Amino acid sequence: DAGITQSPRHKVTETGTPVTLRCHQTENHRYMYWYRQDPGHGLRLIHYSYGVKDTDKGEVSDGYSVSRSKTEDFLLTLESATSSQTSVYFCAISAGRRDTEAFFGQGTRLTVV
Amino acid sequence: GQSLEQPSEVTAVEGAIVQINCTYQTSGFYGLSWYQQHDGGAPTFLSYNALDGLEETGRFSSFLSRSDSYGYLLLQELQMKDSASYFCAVRAEAAGNKLTFGGGTRVLVKP
Question: DSSP labels for chain B?
Answer without folding.
Answer: --EEE--SEEEEETT--EEEEEEEE-SSEEEEEEEEE-TTS--EEEEEESSSEEEEETTEEEEEETTTTEEEEEE-S--GGG-EEEEEEEEEGGGTT-EEE---EEEEEE-
